[in-house]
Specification:
Length: 84
């Protein structure tokens, strides 16, 4: 029973922390989209992930939002590493 309580308490405390992380990740994506030169298909993929993460954030599904937004950032990092 204690473990269940600890798990629930952890989940409740983690959610607000993730909620504040979402807008920061969205801002990072937006800044990188402004500075990187991407092919149109990759840009669409990143924007779709960004928008999906924003929807999750607005729905209160912050862990899902962070996961999707990190996927978008990873695509951007890969694009920055590969020469054009």
């Amino acid at each position: 029973m204690r473990y269940l309580f600890a798990l629930l308490l952890t989940a409740l405390l983690a959610s607000p922390a993730l909620a504040h992380q979402c807008p920061t990740l969205i801002s990072q994506i937006d800044r990188q989209l402004e500075t990187l030169s991407l092919d149109p298909e990759l840009r669409e993929d990143v924007l779709a992930l960004r928008d999906e993460g924003d929807v999750y954030h607005r729905q209160g599904k912050h862990s899902e939002a962070v996961q999707v937004l990190n996927e978008a950032l990873e695509l951007l990092k890969e694009a920055a590493r590969t020469p054009s």
